[in-house]
Amino acid sequence: MSQIKIISFDAEGTLVTPDFSQAVWHEAIPLLYAQKRGIEPARAKTIIAEEYNKIGDQRLEWYDINYWFRGLGLGAPEPVIQSCLDKISYYPEVLEVLPSLADKYKLIIASGTPLELLHYLLQDISSYFAYIFSSLSHYHQLKNPEFYLSICQAMNVEPNQVVHVGDNWQFDFLNSKQVGMHAFYLDRSGKNHQESINDLTQLKHLLLT
User: Fold this and answer.
1) Taking each helix axis from N to C terminus, what angle separates 41-55 and 65-72, rounded to the nearest 10 degrees?
2) What's the average model confidence in pLDDT over 29-33?
3) CA nearest neighbour of 91 among 199, 193, 189, 167
């Protein structure tokens, strides 16, 4: 893969652990909803989970925090986001792998997370990335093949000059591979799925050795 110029990373589940998202979507939002409606937190969790399921992760609204706060009548999302910032953490190898790869390649983020959240999720590692792309905020679409082509156009590179790695089989692996990128599916469960890696240290060894 000597032609590779850019390494593209998904954010949540790839660089950033799910702890922050879990706290926002499944703890803080239901708790606020319970307070607003005067119901038990457990009941609120059930209601909110049902609302999430009605939308599903194949629709843009699923990822749009402003959509949910408007629809649920919760006011502005910023106080909830701020209350969960202490949950942000990175996978153990991230702070070792990023500087090593940044010495040889241009690093970017290609995420479905809106910029309102990415800003916080990446605040301690943003210096490693030349560009941060949010499919929702920049292109108003899911991480479909067109999103990856748009990134290549924005970066003025061919798809085969880009490696993308992420933890979603469809959005990260299949859709980037479809346009000609070199794709790696990050499966931290260690199940050795087809064309998978178990952590980012494996990616580093594949690219630098």
Assistant:
1) 120
2) 98
3) 199
